Amino acid sequence: MPETSTKPYLLRALYEWCTDNGYTPYIVVVVDASTRVPAEFVKNGEIVLNISFEATGNLKIDNDFIHFKARFGGVAREIEVPVSNVSAIYARENGQGMAFEVQRDDEGQRKKKPRSEPAKMPARKISPLLSAVPPAPSNADKAPEDDNQPDPPGKGGRPRLTRIK
Known about the structure:
Layout: H1 7-20, E1 25-30, E2 46-50, E3 57-61, E4 65-72, E5 75-82, E6 86-91, E7 97-99
Antiparallel strand pairs: 1-2, 1-6, 3-4, 4-5, 6-7
């Protein structure tokens, strides 16, 4: 039996990390005939999707596909994305995440790997598409004269969800 890819497990783990830390998880998807996304939002053969709990309904990240319902321009749509087409997952607020290689053929279409053959890791080292963002300076790093000045209200903080009933 062929070995299962680690990619869906890494996607689920990074999704969980984003939500646990209050970040908004986004995925970058290479669009081809096997993806079901709104074509009017595709740019350069890719689409960026917000997969947060607030933006999706019935989100399911399987080993082969990511399924969910989302609104685009106020219209509800069914989204279906092959896991193999996901080229990155990251947190919108700080850009931390992980990039994946999506194999393409000469015409720019995604290469389909035979199911009987397990995926092989490339021999060459691939540089990441995303980079880490340095943490913000803590209060200990500030000069003593900065301690007396208050922080501007509502600027630079983490976004918060306010529910109004």
